[in-house]
Design brief:
This protein is an alpha/beta fold. 38% of the residues lie in helices and 13% in strands. The longest helix has 18 residues.
Length: 386
């Protein structure tokens, strides 16, 4: 089976993890702060808060921005459920903004229309979560402008997008947002097995997220409500969680980030080759906005169903049977049973639903070979045309 995504682990990664295993600290040692600094410096953000997943990062980001009961968080329906679930963890409500039919990212025009309506109804969102699908940045400048006008905060779900750029700057620098989130799950661009990070340029948000990832406990005298009672002393000043990243994970991340640019360059070579060999098929290849340098976490094609006699489901099944690990990113979140019971229905977000009828993620990872790409192409051709 050719999978749709795969981690790249080399001897230097293994050595880095083993040396931490033999060191004094398996958790709460020097590797995590080093990894945080490496990621923040790489993308040009002031602070990085490493946690055990992007899901945890989204949760503490929402809490740090004050999201609570009665508030609204808006995101894209074409995302992993975590981008929306983070609001529910905080007791807030979720709504969705339809996608741009070219980029499949949250559409700024649809956002503006929805904001005008929401303002009239007194239900403006506190937070909007744009998701950089496949690693291509959303139109952050437009979304930021709307945030200034309507007073919402922005969390970029950049789970797909580390190493990608927007207007020639690394995604994650928070130029147009309050907080950006990365995921280091093995299918993503770099991995720590499980892991994530929240980045921000705001000192106060960084301090709050730092507290929340570790029980709300501090050893910093400046944050304490009364003088220390001795060297053992710490204070719990908020209700936090254990969302910490381990030293083993951080060491793996530090080793991986050395190869970040080369991973993304390799993904571009693969994407360009797909673009060339797939041109004659009845499919739409990923359109790239001129402001974007994608990390190409995913290579999503859309079937032109009016030119094909077989169904989307049939092509998908035939690809899987032929040993091609195609996938579908994503089932629109508002159509999940858990969200349907909150009142969302099929038909609410037509662009997203249309996308779901046509999209297929082809295999995309740095070690994918040209021969494997040709197998993908041939299998697709046999099943689209045949
Ligand atoms: C992977 C992913 C997440 C969750 O990441 P974890 O690290 O697995 O928690 C959230 N949002 C998007 C868009 C993702 O792709």
């Amino acid at each position: 089976m050719i999978p749709y995504g795969r981690q790249d682990i080399r001897q230097e990664d293994i050595d880095a993890v083993v040396s931490v295993l033999q060191s004094d600290f398996l958790t709460q040692g020097p590797q995590v702060p080093l990894f945080e600094k490496a990621v923040a410096d790489k993308v040009g953000a002031k602070h990085g808060i490493a946690v055990n997943s992007a899901t945890s990062a989204l949760h503490i980001a929402c809490l740090a921005l004050g999201l609570r009961k009665g508030d609204w968080l808006w995101t894209s329906p074409i995302t992993f459920v975590a981008s929306a679930n983070c609001a529910l963890y905080c007791g807030a409500k979720v709504d969705f903004v339809d996608i741009d039919p070219r980029t499949y990212n949250l559409c700024p025009n649809a956002l503006e229309k929805k904001l005008i309506q929401a303002k009239k109804q007194g239900r403006l969102p506190k937070i909007v979560v744009p998701v950089h699908l496949c690693g291509q940045s959303c139109d952050m400048q437009s979304i930021y402008k709307l945030s200034q006008q309507y007073g919402f905060k922005i969390i970029e779900d950049a789970s797909h997008a580390i190493g990608g750029k927007y207007q020639n700057e690394y995604i994650g620098n928070c130029r147009y947002s309050n907080i950006s989130i990365f995921s280091f799950h093995p299918v993503k661009i770099i991995t720590t097995a499980e892991g994530g990070m929240a980045l921000t340029n705001d000192d106060e948000l960084a301090q709050t997220m730092d507290l929340l990832r570790s029980h709300g406990i501090t050893r910093n005298a400046d944050l304490m409500t009364k003088p220390s009672e001795g060297l053992w002393y710490y204070q719990q000043i908020a209700l936090g969680f254990n969302y910490r990243m381990t030293e083993l994970q951080a060491a793996l991340g530090l080793s991986q980030i050395e190869r970040l640019d080369s991973f993304v360059e390799k993904r571009h070579v693969i994407a360009e080759h797909y673009n060339e060999i797939l041109t004659n098929l009845p499919i739409t290849i990923p359109w790239q906005h001129p402001d974007s340098y994608s990390s190409f976490h995913l290579y999503v094609i859309r079937l032109q169903l009016n030119k094909i006699t077989v169904t989307h489901k049939q092509i998908f099944e035939r690809m899987r049977t032929a040993g091609i690990g195609v996938n579908l990113h994503y089932i629109p979140v508002h159509t999940q049973p858990y969200y349907q019971q909150m009142g969302f229905s099929q038909g609410d977000l037509p662009q997203a639903e249309q996308y779901y009828q046509e999209a297929i993620s082809l295999p995309m990872y740095p070690s994918l070979t040209i021969e494997q790409q040709h197998i993908v192409y041939k299998t697709l051709e046999d099943n689209c045309v045949g």
